[in-house]
Structure formats: C-alpha cells, structure tokens
Amino acid sequence: MSDIDIGARLAALERQITSLQRASRLSHASLEGAAIQVYDESGSLRAVVGQQADGTSGVIAVNGPPPPQPSRPFASPVLGGVAVTWDGSFLEEIAAPLDFARVELHIGATDGFIISDATLRATMESPQGGTLIIAATEAVYFRLMARNTSGAASDPSPQAGPVGPALVVAQDVLDGIIDSTKLAEEAVGRAQLQIGAVGYNQLGIGTGNLVPDPGFEGEFTDQLLVGKTGWSLTAGNTSPRGLKAGPKGAAPSTGRALQITELPASPGDRFFLAFDTRVSTDWVGDSVRFFMEWQNAQGAVVDYAVLTTTPVAGGTWLRVNRQAQAPAGTVKAAVWIKNHEATAGFAEFDNLEIRTVVGSGMVLADSIGATEIAAASITGNEMVAKTLTAREVKAQSLTGNEMATNFLVARHVAAGTLNATHLAVGVDGNLASDPSFEGAYSVSRLVAQWTIVSPGRDSAKAMSVDCTSATATNKNFTLGQFPAVAGQKVWLSADYQLSADWVGTRAAVYVRWDDAAGTVLGYSTIHSGTTAAGSGWKTMSGSPALTAPAQTVTGWIRIAADGSRAGSIQFDNIVCRIVIGSQASGTRAELSPAGLTLFDDDGDERVSLVTGKANFLTISGESGGAVATIDDLGNAGFNDLSVSGLSVAGTRLDSRLAQSPRGLVAVSRQYSAVSGGGTDYGFVELAFQADVTRMYRFVINCMYSATADSGEVHVTLRDGGGSTPSINSPNIQTRVFPLAKDAYRPIHVEFVTSGATLGGGLHRLLSTFRTMWAPAGTTVTLFGRAELPGHMYVEDIGPAIPDTGVYNTGGGTATPPKQQYEKYYAAAWSGSYANRGAYNSYYNNQCLQGYYSSNNGIQASLIGFPAALNSDLAGAAIQQVQLYLYFPHWYNNSGGTAVVRVHGHGSRPGSFSCEGNALGFGWGKNVGKWVDITSIFDGNKRGIALDPQNSAATYYGRAEGVGEGHPPQLKVIYVK
After folding, report:
1. 475 neighbors 567 (Cβ within 8 angstroms)
2. What is the pLDDT of residue 205?
C-alpha cells in the first residue's frame, strides 16, 4: 500500500471547495430556449428571466403589488381643451414604487364617471409627474390611475373637474399690430379688391361654408365664368341663380369642369362636401361631380376626394353629400365641379358646401383665423385702394399675427368694414401658429440652428434644432404670442424626438408671461423629463402649475432645447390652449383637455370630472372628502339614493320583485289551550288583505288532546270576509284527526288558493273545531305552550297561477293536465308605412309612428312574430301578454307617447292596416321597457302595430326593429 499524506489531501480538498463556493455559479452557464422563474418568500412568481411564452426574450416582472393611489390631478382650461397636471405624488405621501410604469389619464363627461378602456386619453411615463393636454368642447372630469411593470393598476386617484376649454374673444387681438405705413386712408374696401386677387395663402378660412359664393349669386361667380366655355347661369334650386354645364368638348376632354376655389389643407384634415344638382331630360353622361383635388407643396396632385351622383334625366333637384380626408403630403385642395363624361344635355349645380369636420370638439367658436395667414403676407402693395371690406374678410379670420407691427391703423379701415366678429386668435383653439410646421409661416421665422425637416410625427414636416455647442446652452424658438390676463392657465403639448447622440438637459414647451413693458414675469413649462436619447418620438403634455402672474398682458409660446451640448431635437404638433375658466382663486369651473373641475368660493375643489383619477366622477363635501363617486369599474358610491323608477333589462324592479313570494302577511302564535266538545267551537281569528293577483297558503299548526280514545276531531278554517267570522261562516278547508286519550297529537291544516278565488280585500279567518263519533261527554283541547307553540298564518307564495291538474285513474287514458307557460318571442319582421299606406323601404325594419313632415305624413308601423306564436297559443288560455320596445328617438327630448294596436298579418304586407283598439304608453328617449297589452291582444290578431293616428309632435318617434340592437319582443303567459 502506497504512502498517502491524508492531511495534505484534506487541505487540498478544502481549498477546492472554498474556490467553488466563491466562484460565480452561472459564469459559464446559458439558457437554451428556457427561462428562470423568480419567486418571493411566499412562493409567488415575481419575474421570468429568459425566453417568454410568446417567443420573445427578456426580464418580465409579474404579479407585482398594485402601485399606490396617485394624488388628485389639477385641471385647467386651455383653448379647445383642458390641461391636466400631476405633481408626481401619491396619496398618504407614499413614494413611487420601483416597478412604476406609467400613470394613465382618464376623462369622463359625468361626475363620478367610471374608468374603462374607453375613457383612457393619455399616459404619463415619468413618476415625476407632468401635464397633459386633452381636447374637450365642454366641461369634463379627470382621474389618474397608476400601473406597474406587471400591468397591475392602482386605485383611481381622487377626481378633478369639471373643467372645460377656454373661450377666445375679440380682445385677444393686441393693440398696435396694424401698421399705418402699409395702407392708404380707407384703402381696404370691397370695391378695390379684384375678384381672385387674394387667395387662401393670404386669408384665413372661416369655420362655416368654405366655398365662396356657394349659391352663385354674386360678383365672384360673374368673374368666375368669364372665358369659361360651356358654363352659364341658370335658375337655382329655390334661388335666383345656379350654374349650368354643357356636355364635354373634343377629346381628350372628360367633361365640363370648373375650378371654384383653393383651400388650405393638411394631412388628416376632414371636410364635409354637399351640393344640389339635376340634369336635363336629354342628358347623357356618366355622373355629376363635386370634388377636392389634393395637392402637395409643389402643386402636384396627390389624390382626389370625389362626391359623385348619377341623377335621373329630367328629375328634380337632388342633394348629395359625403366626407373626405386629406391624404399625406397635402398642403392645399383645389375645389371643382364637373359634368363628367356627358355627351348630351346639361347638368345644373347649386348650393355648394364644404365645411371643416372637427374631431373631438376641438374647434371653438371664434377660433379660426391667426394661423391661416402668414405674418405680413397682406400689405398695401397687394391691394388696390378700398378693395377689402368686411364682406370680403371671413369673420374672425384676421389677427395681429397676419400683419406686421403698426401695419394697419384705424384710418386705413373703411367705416363699418371691420368689427369684433371679423377677428379671432387661432384656428381650433390652438394658440401655436403653424403647429406642425407645414406652411410658409414657419419658414419665414427660421433662425440660426433651427431648420424644418421631413418627415414629422404623423405629418410631413417637423422643426429641428441643432444642439451642438461647446458649453451647455438653452436654445428656444418662438411659435407665437397671445393676450393674457392674470390667473390664466395653459395646457401645453408637444411631440419631440431626441437624436441618438443628443446631449443636454431636456426638451421643453413653455409660455413666457410678460407685462405691458415686456418684463418677464414667469414661465409655465412642460418638459421631457428623463427621456433617453434615441428612444423615438415621445409626447410631453399637461398644464403647468404656474398661472399667469399678476400684471400679465402677453403670453409667448416657445419650444426649447435646454442645456444643449450635442445632437439634435425634433419638435412637431405643438399645442397651447387656455384652460377655460381658469383664474387665481374663488368659485370657478376649469375645463382643459384633461377634464372639468369645479371649485367653491374658497377655491377648494368640489366636483371633479377628469381622467386619470381614482374616480371618474367625484363630488366632495364641505370637509373635502368625497360624498359621491363613480369609479372605473362602474361602481357608484352615494350617501343615499332616491329614484322614482328603476328598471333592470327593460323590466321595472317592482315588477321583477312581484314575481317572487312576499312571505308571511299575517301570523298568530298560541301559548294557551281552548277546549270544546260535540259542537263547533272557535279557536283563533286572523285577518289579512287579499290581492287578486297573488297566491296564498293558509296554515294551522297546534297540538291536541282528548278525554276518549275513539272518535274524531274536525278542525275547520272559515272565512268571514270583511265581517266578524263565526262558527257558521263559510268553510274553506277541514281536516280530520283521530282522538287519543290523554295523548299529545299534532294538528296541521294547510290550504292553498288565489286571491282572485277568495276575492280581493279584507278577509277575517276563523279556525274552529268539534268532536265527531266520540262517546258522549268527550272533550278535546287545542293548545300551544312555550315549548310547543301553536301558530296560524297566511303566506303570500307568489303570483296567482291557474289550476291545471286533471283526474287520472292511472289507466293511461286520462287527458294530460294543463300547464302554465311563460315564453318570449322575438319579432320576425317589421317595417314602417308612409301616410298609413304603402310600405316605406327607406326605413328598412325601423318602426316609425306619428307625423314629422308632409313627405311621409302620419306614419305607422307593423311588427310580426314567428309562426311558433300562433301554434303555441292554439287552444291556450292567455293569462298575460307583455310587449318590449326600445325607442332611441322622439321628437321631444322629454320623450313621447307610443300608441300600440294589434294586427293579423302573417308577413309584412305592402300596405298598412290594423285593429281599432289601442293602448297609449308614455316613453322616454333611449328607453327600452316592457308594457302590458293583455287587454287588446286578440287570439287571432297577434301582430303589433304602432299607429297614433295623430299629428301632434308628442306621437312622433322611432322604435328599433328587427335586426337592430334592441328588437321588439313579446312575453306571453298562457295555460295549455
């Protein structure tokens, strides 16, 4: 055996073990198509590292605890919306969790609204808070809800709001912006403005009909037709003049086309187009068209939006309409009318109409003007003296931004040609001029290191700033100015993108507040926070906490690259809106794109309707605590609730409750004894009120004993009606029990009948007893005591139902017993009839009733049901019939009166007829409910008619028919 140094061997092994313990366990390990799951001390999965279930790889947090509840946001009005600010804090001063992901901003129209996917408007990605601008046209409410990286949601924040958008008024135009050096005295007059001399690039477009002289009644049309072959004036549609177009000329002509005007347009802009047209009896052609030709900055055609119709030759005037949306690359639109591919006859046009289709209520009254006209683009050199008057200037389309300082003064404006209705700031409530940098206005204002680049964020262009600088430098660009007053709040928003090599402090959009002398009073700023360079387009938005300081007269809108050292920042889609109703303190309603908030005399928030809070709607009490809320799950909280009516799925709650037993309606307990013999003797009297629609159970329970072993005791329930009952009152139930001497035996008498059988009203019941076939002198005692109480009671066991049983000897030949059925029948067909005559296919299956105009006169409707209804009711005894209808519309907002009749048509007929008996029911708008029509439902006339036979407005309404969301139904209870 060789010599082995055991000590040295053990020492070496210890060194190896120590080395292994200190080494990284997975330094040379890898995961092949797998993942490591991380659990906490309770065994719950908290993270998955590696390949995920969907094939992606990474570190995914799961099952994290919900984040804390965010604090109440602050909402303030801006033009066209509401600015909502979150200060980054959480309730109870809880710090932001390390797995914080974002804070969601939710908006609702009603106090206490419920958070849902539909109410989500924006998110804040930074736990430091921020401000979001939310479009709104009326006061709304706001709430915040935090989420962590696991997707878990916090409780909604307290509600803010209601707050609505700020209004723009004529006073928003600053003094001194019109320069007298540019125009001769009274140089602006209609007579001096040559038709067509001022195009869309020089004038703002109004918010009404964008087509000049849409009825072809004025000088514009006269000038338009000069030199236009094939076009002439004609009688219009109920107006003196229209346009007439002849057939197309020689090839390659495709028809007679006439350009009416040009309009500015941006990608995504939506317009409503409509016009009246008719063609001659000899017209032969493809179609009559009214269209917009989308053009890019170079004037090349991008696409067309064509409103097309093919009228009946020799027919009456026809009005057609559609909506159109400008495609990418659009900067303007040429407006045309055309008699397309016509080889004979002529086409007539009248009442052209193009209107801006505004999404989400973003355009406010008096808001279109400043950004449609480039600064200093109209000077005296462009106009003949006295060519521009109030008639030629679109209402509210000229503001100070369109003219150089001191460009126009009072002596240059003809008397009566300019008033407050012709002036406004902004286009859609946005105070930032050319917010997407698509027009010449932005090009004209470029300064060093600021350039316009392509593309932008969902737009053709963006503004870029070169951030290269030897030292940290703040670089800013002015987008415009607006008049302001102390206490005003703004809602700001901007899309921004940091280049991958950007070095700096932050991107920002802000308003600088100045006094009348130009002294800077403060800044209201929204910034990018800690956004990583090269992370793509982001959005910063919200309402800064700082309001316009005292002495403020002007707000300057700017974008900025703060602390710039390297790289670049791109900006796009800048928004600055006044928070409507904002002021420094006191009672107010503030509305911004984030929502609506109401404040009391002390400036404390009382009602909040904002997104991103714990409750969509919060109403606060004097203590500041919520007294009524509606959360994001639709759960409502009220201190008390009182309603005049409550329905569930169209059935009133009291009707639903009526289908259930009501329980005991009268009861008596017995703890003493009553003895009697061979003649009837009274035991207990009990009274109750009978309802003819209900079913009742009568029960007598007690103990008895006797002095003999033979014979019987008869226990009887008697009904005295409304009078005092006696032993001679009518017997309604008797039970017989054998006598047993000196023994306690139970008595149980039970009887079931309907209130209709007994008769409605008061019933005084008396239980009596006597011995029968017993030895002379036998007595019997009915009793109850403490440990064996007796009782007599009347129980309501539900709605009355008919007797349906039959005798059956068991021989297999008995008639089957009747049953009571309750069935629902969905309508099989429906339709409306004009003038109570022919079927009106225009309304398809909708069910109209009443008079709206002479076109259709007094309308009526028929509703039919499947053949199963007739087969089910053949030979049946009908107990009850209910009809379900849903009325989405009535002439009056308060609702109307539905008049229901019956008919016997098996399928939808070509002309209307029905039975004469009718029932009228009051009905609300957007209300579906069940009504009882048993009294008019005929066994042979099983269809429903809506037929008021009255022209009063209260009878004009529309019920949904077959194939719509709430079709008609019948509920029939019958015995068969």
Report:
1. no
2. 45
- Determine the 3-state secondary structure of 341 from DSSP: coil
CB atoms within 10 A of CB 791: 15
Location of structure tokens 């350039």? 451
Residues 169/366, Cβ–Cβ less than 8 Å: yes
Concatenated DSSP letters of 268-281: T-EEEEEEEEEE-T
In sequence order, which residues have a C-beta less than 8 Å from that of residue 6 and are 6 or more positions away? none
Q: How far is CA 201 from the centre of its chain?
A: 38
Contact 243, 349 (CB under 8 A): yes
Among 36-45, 473-482, 576-585, name the one with the lowest average pLDDT.
Answer: 36-45
In angstroms, the CA 596 to CA 592 distance is 7
Rounded to 5 degrees, what angle do the CA atoms 780, 782, 785 make? 135
What are the start-end ranges of the H helices in 697-829? 755-758
pLDDT in tens, 484-517: 999 888 989 999 999 999 999 999 999 999 999 9
| Residue 836 DSSP one-character state | G
In angstroms, rounded to a whole number, what is the distance separating the alpha carbons of residues 903 and 131?
62
Cα gap 637→227, rounded to integer Å:
72
Residue in this structure with the two tokens 């387009």, named with its chain if needed: 537
Reported as a single tens digit per residue, the pLDDT across 336-372 is 999 999 999 999 999 999 998 865 444 444 444 544 4
pLDDT of residue 421: 40
Residue 201, CA distances (Å) to 204, 211, 248, 366, 397 in order? 8, 15, 32, 20, 12
In 284-435, beta strands by DSSP E? 287-295, 301-309, 318-325, 332-340, 347-357
929: DSSP letter: E
- The whole-number pLDDT of residue 364 equals 46
Q: Coil, strand, or helix at residue 523?
A: strand
Which helix (H) or strand (E) is 145 found in, with range?
strand 140-148
The C-alpha angle with vertex 301 and arms to 295 and 307, in degrees rounded to 5, equals: 85
Q: How many other CB atoms are found less than 10 A from the CB of residue 671?
A: 12
Cβ contact 611:111 at 8 Å: no
Give the DSSP letter string of 81-150. EEEEEE-S-BGGGPPPPTTEEEEEEEEESSTTPPP-GGGEEEEE--TT-EEEEEE-SS-EEEEEEEEETT
Of the two residues 376 and 307, the one the predictor is more confident about is 307
Q: In what order do the strands lie in the sheet with 462-466?
A: 450-453, 462-466, 568-578, 490-498, 538-542
The C-alpha angle with vertex 223 and arms to 220 and 228, in degrees rounded to 5, equals 125
What tens digit of pLDDT does each residue of 630-657 get? 776 667 777 776 565 566 665 666 667 7
Residue for token pair 């429906």 = 830
d(CA 424, CA 414): 19
Higher pLDDT residue, 26 or 450? Answer: 450
